[in-house]
Each structure stands twice: as C-alpha cells, then as structure tokens.
Amino acid sequence: MALPDSVTTCLSQPVHYVICKLGFEKKDTYDIDNILSGNGEVCWPAVTEHVCYLESDQSVDYIKSIRSLGPVCESVNLYFKSLTKEQFVIQYASWFHWTNCTEVFLEVFDVLQSTQATEVALGLMKLTSCLERALGDVYLLKGNDCPFLLRDLLASEQLADVFGQAVMNVLRVFIGSPHGLNLRNVLWHGFASPQEIPAKYCAMLLFLTAGLGQLLQTYLLQTKSVLVHRPYVVFISLEELDAFPGNEILSIAEELVKLSNFVLKIMLPFWIAALTAFKQSRYADSVILLLPQLEAGLRLLFTTTNKCPNRLLTAESSALYTTFDEMLAKHLDNEEVNQLPVVLKEPAMERDFLWDFLNHQEGPRIRDRLSHGEINLETFPREIANQIVGFAITILCRFSDEAMFSLKEHMIIKPLMSCASCYQSRFHPISRLKKQVLECMKSIHLWPELATVPEEKEQKIKGLEGNAEANALILMISEIISQLQHYMPQNCCSSDDPINSVLTERLLVELCDTHICTLYCPRPVLEVVVVLRKISAQCHQVSQQVIAGAGLRHTQWLNKTLRSRQRHNYRRMLNSIKFLSPVLRLILLLITLELVSVHSVCKKNPFDYQQYLKFLKSVLQYTENLVTYTSPDKNKWDETMELTKKTLIKIKKISDRKLMLMHLAT
C-alpha cells in the first residue's frame, strides 16, 4: 500500500489548477455594489455577464468564466465578512426559506467568519446538498421525475424556465458540471483536502442561493404557484442497522486515525473534525465528513491493489472518477478482475457493510441520501452515525502496521473487531428474503391463538375435514416433507407428526442462519430471489388477512350480528385455515431450501433453473389468488381450498424434479 504521507494532493494537475489557481489570476478589485441593489438583492445581469461562451457553439467557456468570476467571488466573501450575524439574518434569512433548511445556510455564514478550512469544506458540502434538494422541488413545479444527478438537474429546461438559462449557467460554473469547478463532487467523493477549497467559492454559492430565492419569489407570484417540499427520508427499524457497540471507542479513535495507513495525511483534519462532531452530538456533520474520507482511503487501497496509482487523482472531465461504485464492482473498466474485493474478502465485513449502507436499494443508502439532500440534517439518527464511526475504526485497525498491535488488542477495540468479523449483509435481497420468511412464519404461528366459536357450534363442512380427500391432502404434505428431509437438519422430523415437527419457526431460523454469499450474485439467482420474495410477501398478506378477518368475524359472532350466510362462511373459514396453515408453512420451507441451493442450481443447470422458475411463478400466481380469495370483501373459502389442492399436486410433482436438482447442486 502506498504511503499516505507521500500523497500531497488527490486533485489532478488540471483540476488543481482550476480550483486552486484559476479564480485568483485576475487581481482586479470588484465593487460589491455592482451586483447588489440598495436593499441587498442580487443584480443578476451583473453576475451573468461574467459567464463567457465559446464562439464555436455558444456553450459555456468554463475556464474564462471561472477566471472572470474570481474577483466577484472574492468581493462577495469580503462583503459577508463585513456583516454581523444579525445584519445577515435581517437582510438574507427570508431568501433562504425556499430551501426548507434556512438554518443550514445561516450556519454557512458563521463558517465563513472563521479560519477553519475544514469547517468551510463541511459547510460547502451541506450547502450543495440542501441546494440540490431545493432545486429539485422547484423542478417539480414544471416537471415530473426529478433528475437524480445534479448535472442533469441544472441542465434541465424546467429550471431554465423558472430562473433563466443565464442564471443556471452561473450555477453550473460552480457545481454540477465536470468542466467547471465541480465543487460538490470533488468534496463529496473525497478528492479535495481542506486547504484546497477556497472559502470565496462557498461565499459565492451562499450569495447565489439567496439570489435564487429572490427570483423564485417573483416567479411564484407571477404564476400563482406554490412550492411544495418533498418529505425527508425517515429511517425506520434502526435496530437493523446496529452492528457495533457504543462510542467508547472514541477515547482512542484519534490515536488510531493518526497512526493508520488508511488515512491520507492531507485528509487528517477531516477525520479529526468528524470525530469531534460525533462527540458534540453533531451526527450528520460527523457522517458527512467521514464518508468522503472512507472513499478516499478505499481509493488508495483500490489503486494500490489494482496497480493503477493514477486513479487516485480526480479524473478529467472526459473520464469517470474512481468512486465507491467502481471500487466495489467485480471488474474494472478494462474487464480485469477488481482486486479490492479480494483484499476485503476475509473478513467480508468491510465489503458487506459498504454494500449494505451505501448501495443496496433497501439499505439506508447514506451517502446518496445525504449528498442529495434527502435527509433532515437536524434529526440525523445517532444510531447510523455510530455504525459509520464503528466501521471506520475497524478499517483503520485492519490497515495499519504492527506498531499498532497494542491498540488492536485494546479492551475496547477487540469487541469491535469481533462484531466486524461476524457481520453479514442485512440489506441484500437474499437477506431481506430471509427476514420476510421469518416474519411471515411468526404471523402464521399466531393462527392457533385465534378465537373460535365453541366446538359444539362448529359444523363440519363437506370437502374440508373428516373425509378421505382432506386426509389425502394432509398425506401429500407429509410426503413432500419426507422428500425434502434429506436437505434439512437431522432429527427435525417426527414420524408421528411430520407436519408440526418440521414446519416450525425454529427450523426456518436454523436454515436462514446458513451463510449464503451475497456478493456479485448472478442475475439468474436474483431473478429467483425476486419471485421468492413476492411469494413470501403474498403469504404474509394472506396471514394478516386471516388474522384480521377471524378477529372481526368472532366479534360479530359474539355480538350476534352475523347473518345466516355469514355464519356459514365463518365456519368455512375456521375449517379452511386449519388446513391452510401447513400449506403456507410448507411454501415458506420450500423458499428457504431454495435459497440454500439456488446458487449451484443456476450455475450447473441453467435449463432446469428456467423450468423451476416457471414453477415458482405458478406458486406465486397461487399465492396472489389466495390474497384475493381470503380478502374481507371476497371470503371465497371453497375456492381457496380447491385452488390449494391443485397447487399441492403441482408441488408434489415438481418436488421429485427439485430433489434431482438439489442432488446436482451438492
């Protein structure tokens, strides 16, 4: 691994020139009164005239524009420094209301009064995040499906219609275009060190945001429109994110940061600021500072293990940055195998954790949501910040030299590393399927507790109980279980009661604990998992409908508010669910066993896999019909049992074939 001390910048020479030097070449002193009216409003024509255009196609000439705007930015920065906080609030606070996060922009003003380069960079990251979210809200005044990428948003006709194309071109000089300063990306992707971001650009974006608020107010009055803010993402089930113990680790974290080879020394102030923010309960700030540095450290590993040191630097506008997505991919852009996942393979924690927290669609996707302004910074959960800090500490420890042995053996570090070593993905589709199956089984296990009518009042319904056909179906379930027994833990099946001894929550928990590799799942595997998840979801909905329907009907029975036909249907329901329970539990068992074998089956028997996928889709159709038949407005219990009988016969036929597939897979 390259020595982090030897890296003096992560900006390529052209990018470093554009950000750190170009805007300082003109030494003119710019009069702030040229772009400010008497009441403090932005004179946009005086700003837009500094944007230069290429003669060839009239597109923005970013180099000349940055050079021309440099003195303007300096003038704005000095102007803000001359204001007191009270003056700034009186004159500008109302112009930030359109962003729905006024306090963030007022904090940025405070940052500009300090000399802390790290705080300026943090302020700029928060500013660009909130500005992007607000611009997306404005976009939705005129269009649907707001663009995900900032560059596409700023180039949209919708925003040009509201603010004017010339105004949008000014913004694109600072953010959103890889040809311009591109401040958002170089910061959020961990390329810029604190000293490489001029404070005057942060001041200018603050100034421009206020100016956009002024333009928007005029537009809303003219069009009689109302700006609606999209709700923030709210994290639920935070306990699912709990992988690491509490923050006792902070007591030695700063020492780890200073000693680990994972940390680029030019980025050390960011790490220290992140830990300080966590101690001060500024959890959003802590994570905003840490995520780019984790990316920077992993990029150092990536470029070292793949022998491409030039990729450590920012790419030019004609190429892509080396970001998390590429670093976690299976192959490089030249189709060679990416060596970073190999380095992170044992333990797999770093790899799985990164995919869970950053990439998987059902995970928190922290970096995306923070950088695009989808999270309320004031209420950012401590639980998430604790996990990011805990992960950072484990990776600092792992990529350190032997001189840190005493720290690695520290009584606080060892439990943390132990948690890391046993981490398994929680948000991969396979992991979510396991969770769905167990939740569904818990729901079905509530059925025996459902209140029923007294036994002497129950009427046996022909075709459901007490006849040869029903016994035959029960026998069919037992035979299917017997066929599958070879692929289940030993001694889990009782010959006296195969159904209730096998189709249990305990068995499913044991099977779901089987480790399944989730990294780079082949598409066929994911296709199967998609169908299995749909089946599981339909089963769960059936269970919920049965529980709700049985409770309602029992109450109506006791209150004697059921009509004769409803009483008859209620009895059918009670008899049907006694039979339906083992069927649904059998389907959940099949889902779980499929998870264990699907990797090998898809790889070794692609044709058989396709045939089996068709079968799974037929089971899905059955469960979808069950949802309809068991819904409160249908209550088609005779149809439910007839459909169930046909499906069991199909499962019995396919189970022999499935057994052969499993033999081939093992």
Automatic annotation (TrEMBL):
Q: Which Pfam families match?
A: DUF4209 (PF13910)
Name all DUF4209 domain ranges: 131-211
This protein's name: EMARD protein
Q: Which organism is it from?
A: Agelaius phoeniceus (Red-winged blackbird)
